[in-house]
Amino acid sequence: MSQLLIEKIDAILPQTQCKKCGFAGCRPYAEAIVEGGADINQCPPGGQQGIQKIAELLDIPAKPLNTMHGYPRSYQVVAWIDENLCIGCTFCIQSCPVDAIVGAAKQMHTVIADECTGCDLCVTPCPMDCISMIPVNQKVTDWACSSIDAVKKQTANKARSRYQFRQQRIAHEKRTDLKTHTKEFIQPPQTQMSPEVRKQAIITAALKRAAAIRPQTENKPDSIKNK
């Protein structure tokens, strides 16, 4: 597998991490293309322009977008949560590939619009149907200061970084949970005692043993006691 080629294809993809291509993210899709496990026309957010760029990179003919994976949008969208209906179930937070939704269990959630990639993966899991995808007007300053392609690239790079950070965080949490469960299985947690508490516990246990032995001694015949 050519890592350099994967990097180049991944750089072309829009980094929405929407899974519409049939893979877990843009990077896995790029790997599948290089391995021969996926076609170049499975990314709706990338549209025909993205297909053309990948075809030129691979020096193969371009082809129309496979609409079985969806249709490209002519405008940018972000998720929006109706906070009056949100019950704080956290399902949307768990499904967001770039950690663009914030909130806590049983508390209102909200979307960080500037970080949202418009993947819409948070819509289906919501039990309250309170998440909508709404159009976003690109800031005029963005278009004035740079070309459209440059803005798209900057947005994609930021989304890729957030996606990678989330993957690393999830992997770290899984490793931590595994270590904790393994330690509990091998050696159950013991209550930590201060020296004073431990000393008192030893004395108390000794007094209980003495109290249990005393009646047995007192009930023995005098001849045995005097031996």
Sequence-ordered SSE layout with sheet pairings:
Layout: H1 3-12, H2 26-35, H3 47-58, E1 77-81, H4 91-95, E2 101-102, E3 110-111, E4 131-135, H5 140-145, H6 148-186, H7 195-218, H8 222-225
Antiparallel strand pairs: 1-4, 2-3
Helix pairs in contact: 1-2
Describe the structure concisely for a colleague.
This is Electron transport complex protein RnfB. This protein has 227 residues and is mainly alpha-helical.
Biggest pleated-sheet summary: 2 strands, antiparallel
Give the percentage of residues in beta strands. 5-15%
Q: Could you report the average pLDDT, rounded to the nearest whole number?
A: 85
**Count of distinct strands:** 4
Rg, Cα atoms, Å: 31 Å
- Reported by name, the CATH topology of the largest domain is 3-methyladenine DNA Glycosylase II, Chain A, domain 3
User: What's the structural domain tally?
Assistant: 3
Structural class: mainly alpha
Dominant shape: elongated
Q: Considering the protein shown, what is the CATH homologous superfamily of the largest domain?
A: Electron transport complex subunit B, putative Fe-S cluster
Helix content: 40-55%
User: Secondary-structure element sequence?
Assistant: HHHEHEEEHHHH
Q: Quick one: CATH class of the largest domain?
A: Mainly Alpha
Q: Strand sequence of the main sheet, in spatial order?
A: 1-4
Low-confidence parts, pLDDT < 50 over ≥5 residues?
139-146, 223-227
- Distance between the terminal alpha carbons, to the nearest Å? 90 Å
> Which CATH architecture of the largest domain would you pick?
Orthogonal Bundle
Number of helices: 8
